[in-house]
Amino acid sequence: MAIRQIRMEGDPVLGKKCRPVEVMTDKIHELIGDMLETMYEHNGVGLAAPQVGILKRIVVVDIGEGPIVMINPQILESEGEEIMDEGCLSVPGMAGEVARPGYVKVRALDEDMDEVVLEGTELLARAFCHEIDHLEGIMYTSLVKGGLHPVEYEDE
Ligand code: ZN
Q1: Mean per-residue pLDDT for 121-145?
Q2: Average pLDDT, the chain
């Protein structure tokens, strides 16, 4: 596995719609492993393939409960609304308030191309929505109400 370079906001690749994955290949397995490693390296809770320059419908998420891999994800249901600060590895050091559903149900394929249905609330619902937006070329910065602000990091 390898850490891949994260594309920053303004890179045209982040504004493009991604293509579905039709078949699993060794190359895609390697990409998924690299995406997880890259996400963990940068202490992110999610990463979408276009953020490493690949226009495929693949996202990885880990909110601290273990890795989730979603291929060709689709939101089936959503409920409620929560407004919270959100950030993105493609916009380092910044955050802004975005309204997201408090609950989502997502259908996707896992790394074996088996169908899975996942439910998320709060941060997990937010991460699912944020990463799935990336696959449509949508950056959270276009959804922020009230502007971005710098994130204050605590000393480690
Ligand atoms: Zn993002």
Answers
A1: 97
A2: 96
